[in-house]
C-alpha cells in the first residue's frame, strides 16, 4: 500500500514546463515576426523571457507541492502552490488506468499514468506525468485487488496469469498504414498550416517570382495534384506506423491490456465490465481485401478520447474475427445471418445518397462547361453508395445480444448486449409511415455523452420484434 505521500519523478518539472510552454507558441511567433519595432518590441521580448522564467519556477513549485498516495481505499492527491487542495478518489469509482511513455519518460524508464473515473468529466481525474514502472504496477495491483475485495501488502508477490495474447504482424501494420483514411487529415493540416504561415511569411510575394508558363497544360496540374496526394498518403502511413508499432493485446484475468507506439508507448487497461459494445468497421479499401478494424466501446472517457472508442485490432482478416472475439471478448458472439431490409427501403436509401450530389452537379454543369460534366460521376458514385448502404443494412438477435449493421461510407457492425443498452427508440416520419417503415435508434453508455447507432427504414413488423425482445426480462 502507498501510504506515505510520494512525488512524481523530478523530470516532471520539465514535462509540466513544456506543457505550459505550448500555450505560448503563438504569442512568441507574434512577438518575433509580427510585433512592433523598436522599444515596444524590446519590452515585449523582455516580458516574454520573464514569463518563461516564471513558468519554469512555477513548474518547479507545482512539482514540489504535488503528492499522491493510496490510503483507506482512496487515491489521495494534494497539490497547489498558494492554496493547498486535496482530492480524494474512492477506488471503486475508477473505470480505467491508462499508461503511456513519451520520449522523455522512456529515457528515464518512467511512465505516465492517467486514471479515469465514472463521471470524471472532460479529462482524466488523476494524471501522474512521470512515475516509476514499479509504482504504476503497484497502483494497478492495489486497484484490482481492492475491487475484488482483497487487500495487499507492500511486499506481497502477486501472480497474474496471462490467458491469451495477440501481436500485430509487420504485414498487417503496413496494411493499416496504407489503407488508413488519414490522407484527408494530413491535407487539412497542411492547408491549415499554409493559411497560418500566410500571415507571417509573404507567400504571395514568393509565388509571384515563380514563373509558370501560360501554356501549362492541365496534365501538369493533374500530376502536381497526384504528387501532393502521394506525399500526403506517405505521411499518413508513417504516422500510422509510428502510432501502432509493436501493437499487442493481452488478456489477463478479466482485463484487456492494449499496448502500442514507437515514439510514445501507450498502454490501456480495459476491464471486462467496462465493455459496452464491439464495433467492426470496414472501409471500402479494407473490405475489398477482406480486412476490418475492431473497436471496443467502453464506459468512461475524457477530452482526449471523448467517445472512449479503443482499437482492439487495428487491421485483421475478417474471417479471423469470430475466433478472436471468442478468445478476448467471449460475451460477444459473431453473427453472419442478418434480417435484411424490405425492398421498398431501397429507393429511400438511393434518394438520400443521390440528392446532395444532384444539387451540387447541376450548377457545375451549367457554369463550368465542359469540365463540370465530370460532376455527373458523383451522382453515379452516390447511387452506388446508396445501393450498398441498403444492401448491407440489417439486424440480428442472438439470445441477449442485438447486432446492427449499416453503412455510411464504411460498413459498420455493432454488437450490443441488452443489459448494456441505455435506450432504444423508434421513429417514424410521414413518408416512412406511408411505407410502413421505421428508424431504430440505440444508445449505449460509452464515452462522455454516450454512443448512438441508427438503422433506418426497418420493416414495422421487425421493429415490433426488437421492441418485444428488449422489453422481456432475462
From TrEMBL:
Cleavable signal peptide: none
Record Pfam families: bPH_2
Any coiled-coil regions, as ranges: none
Keyword Transmembrane: yes
Keyword Transmembrane: yes
InterPro entries: UCP026631, YdbS-like_PH
UniProt keyword annotations, A-Z: Membrane, Transmembrane, Transmembrane helix
Transmembrane segments: 21-40, 46-66, 173-194, 220-242, 349-367
Domain YdbS-like PH intervals: 63-141, 248-303, 390-470
Name of the molecule in the record: PH domain-containing protein
Amino acid at each position: 500500500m502507498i501510504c506515505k505521500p510520494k512525488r512524481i519523478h523530478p523530470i516532471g518539472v520539465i514535462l509540466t514546463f513544456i506543457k505550459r510552454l505550448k500555450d505560448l507558441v503563438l504569442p512568441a511567433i507574434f512577438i518575433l515576426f509580427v510585433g512592433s519595432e523598436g522599444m515596444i518590441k524590446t519590452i515585449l521580448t523582455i516580458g516574454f523571457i520573464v514569463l518563461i522564467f516564471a513558468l519554469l519556477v512555477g513548474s518547479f513549485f507545482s512539482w514540489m507541492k504535488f503528492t499522491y498516495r493510496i490510503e483507506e481505499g482512496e487515491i489521495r492527491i494534494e497539490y497547489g502552490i498558494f492554496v493547498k487542495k486535496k482530492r480524494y478518489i474512492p477506488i471503486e469509482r475508477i473505470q480505467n488506468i491508462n499508461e503511456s511513455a513519451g520520449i522523455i519518460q522512456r529515457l528515464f524508464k518512467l511512465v505516465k499514468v492517467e486514471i479515469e473515473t465514472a463521471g470524471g468529466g472532460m479529462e482524466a481525474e488523476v494524471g501522474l506525468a512521470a512515475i516509476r514502472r514499479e509504482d504504476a504496477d503497484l497502483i494497478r495491483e492495489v486497484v484490482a485487488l481492492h475491487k475484488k475485495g482483497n487487500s495487499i501488502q507492500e511486499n506481497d508477490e502477486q501472480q497474474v496469469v496471462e490467458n491469451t495474447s495477440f501481436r500485430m504482424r509487420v504485414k498487417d501494420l503496413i496494411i493499416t498504414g496504407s489503407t488508413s483514411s488519414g490522407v484527408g487529415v494530413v491535407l487539412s493540416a497542411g492547408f491549415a498550416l499554409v493559411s497560418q504561415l500566410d500571415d507571417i511569411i509573404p507567400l504571395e510575394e514568393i509565388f509571384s517570382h515563380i514563373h509558370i508558363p501560360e501554356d501549362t497544360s492541365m496534365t501538369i496540374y493533374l500530376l502536381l495534384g497526384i504528387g501532393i496526394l502521394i506525399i500526403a498518403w506517405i505521411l499518413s502511413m508513417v504516422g500510422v506506423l509510428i502510432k501502432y508499432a509493436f501493437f499487442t493485446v493481452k488478456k489477463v484475468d478479466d482485463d484487456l491490456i492494449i499496448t502500442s507506439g514507437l515514439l510514445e508507448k501507450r498502454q490501456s487497461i480495459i476491464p471486462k465490465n467496462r465493455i459496452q459494445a464491439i464495433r467492426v468497421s470496414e472501409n471500402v479499401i479494407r473490405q475489398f481485401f477482406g480486412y476490418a478494424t475492431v473497436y471496443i466501446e467502453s464506459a468512461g472517457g475524457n477530452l482526449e478520447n471523448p467517445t472512449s472508442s479503443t482499437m482492439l485490432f487495428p487491421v485483421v482478416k475478417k474471417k479471423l474475427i469470430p475466433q478472436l472475439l471468442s478468445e478476448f471478448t467471449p460475451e460477444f458472439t459473431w453473427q453472419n445471418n442478418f434480417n435484411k431490409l424490405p425492398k421498398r427501403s431501397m429507393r429511400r436509401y438511393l434518394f438520400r445518397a443521390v440528392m446532395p450530389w444532384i444539387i451540387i452537379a447541376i450548377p457545375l454543369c451549367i457554369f463550368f462547361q465542359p469540365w463540370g460534366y465530370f460532376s455527373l460521376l458523383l451522382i453515379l458514385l452516390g447511387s452506388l453508395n446508396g445501393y450498398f448502404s441498403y444492401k448491407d443494412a440489417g439486424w440480428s438477435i442472438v439470445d441477449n445480444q442485438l447486432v446492427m449493421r449499416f453503412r455510411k461510407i464504411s460498413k459498420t457492425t455493432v454488437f450490443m448486449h441488452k443489459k448494456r443498452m441505455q435506450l432504444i427508440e423508434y421513429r417514424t416520419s410521414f413518408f416512412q409511415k406511408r411505407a410502413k417503415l421505421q428508424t431504430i435508434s440505440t444508445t449505449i453508455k460509452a464515452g462522455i455523452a454516450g454512443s448512438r447507432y441508427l438503422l433506418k427504414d426497418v420493416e414495422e413488423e421487425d421493429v415490433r420484434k426488437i421492441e418485444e425482445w428488449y422489453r422481456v426480462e432475462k
